[in-house]
């Protein structure tokens, strides 16, 4: 299979290329830093599988580009790769019909094993996002709605703006914030949000 690697990390690119070279089943056709150029290789019909990083050069979302490629070239198999534990990435990859998802630093299996399973027609996803400690709590203890609130707080939204965007009341938003502070042990809301962002549990630049 002809494989395109899309990753702007030199270390990651070297690792992926090295692993693929150990298998006679795959050939790296190109390694590029920005997902913005990935579709050009698909147009040339020279790609069977893409290893797509989430955050690529030029601030281009690998997830969004993967969605476009799957829509226009459904036969190309895509495995999303990332080192970021942001909880929404797996959901978006599934929505875009990507065949696989692999954490660079938290992977449950080797990337070649993931590629082999995807090559054979399987969908391969981790059982859950990596568990990271936030204050006194673990990332697995937050609900999807709580993550939504934290992400919008990280975007600088007011309580009313968050309520309007999520279709809930301002009082409910306050309840979620109080619950988050209670779980994590933080008294300062923005210090709490800063830890979520620092540990990449929410990436407000990726939608």
Question: Main attributes?
Answer:
9 strands; 207 residues; 43% helix; Rossmann fold; 9 helices; Arc Repressor Mutant, subunit A; five-stranded parallel sheet
The first-level CATH class of the largest domain is given as: Alpha Beta
Q: In DSSP terms, counting alpha (H) and pi (I) runs of 4 or more, how many helices?
A: 9
Which structural class fits the helix and strand makeup? alpha/beta
What is the residue-averaged pLDDT? 91
Outline, from the CA principal axes? Answer: elongated
Number of domains: 2
In CATH, the homologous superfamily of the largest domain goes by the name: Response regulator
* Reported CATH architecture of the largest domain: 3-Layer(aba) Sandwich
Which SSEs are present, and which pair or pack?
Layout lengths: L1 E5 L3 H12 L5 E6 L5 H6 L5 E5 L1 E2 L3 E2 H11 L4 E6 L5 H8 L4 E4 L7 H9 L13 E2 L2 E2 L5 H11 L4 H8 L3 H15 L4 H10 L9
Parallel strand pairs: 1-2, 1-3, 3-6, 6-7
Antiparallel strand pairs: 4-5, 8-9
Helix pairs in contact: 6-8, 6-9, 7-8
Task: Tell me what you see in this structure.
- With 207 residues, this protein is α/β, with parallel strands linked by helices.
- The protein folds into two domains: 2-119, Response regulator (Rossmann fold); 133-198, Arc Repressor Mutant, subunit A, CATH 1.10.10.
- The chain is 43% helix and 16% strand.
- It has helices at residues 10-21, 38-43, 62-72, 88-95, 111-119, 144-154, 159-166, 170-184, 189-198, and strands spanning 2-6, 27-32, 49-53, 55-56, 60-61, 77-82, 100-103, 133-134, 137-138.
- It has a five-stranded parallel sheet with strand order 2-1-3-6-7, sandwiched between helices.
- Helix 7 (159-166) crosses helix 8 (170-184).
- The two termini are 30 Å apart.
- The mean pLDDT is 91.
């Amino acid at each position: 299979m002809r494989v395109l690697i899309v990753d702007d990390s030199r270390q990651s690119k070297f690792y992926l290329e090295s692993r693929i070279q150990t298998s006679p089943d795959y050939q790296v056709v190109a390694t590029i830093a920005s997902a913005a150029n990935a579709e050009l290789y698909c147009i040339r019909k020279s790609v069977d599988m893409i290893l797509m990083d989430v955050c690529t050069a030029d601030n281009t979302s690998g997830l969004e580009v993967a969605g476009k490629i799957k829509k226009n070239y459904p036969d190309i198999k895509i495995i999303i790769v990332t080192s970021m534990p942001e909880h929404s990435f797996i959901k978006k990859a599934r929505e875009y019909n990507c065949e696989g998802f692999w954490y660079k630093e938290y992977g449950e299996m080797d990337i070649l094993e993931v590629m082999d399973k995807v090559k054979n027609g399987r969908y391969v996803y981790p059982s859950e996002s990596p568990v990271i400690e936030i204050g006194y709590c673990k990332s697995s203890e937050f609900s999807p709605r709580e993550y939504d609130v934290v992400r919008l707080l990280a975007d600088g939204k007011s309580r009313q703006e968050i309520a309007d965007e999520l279709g809930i009341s301002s009082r409910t938003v306050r309840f979620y914030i109080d619950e988050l502070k209670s779980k994590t042990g933080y008294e300062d809301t923005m210090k709490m949000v800063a830890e979520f962002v620092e540990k990449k549990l929410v990436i407000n630049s990726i939608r």
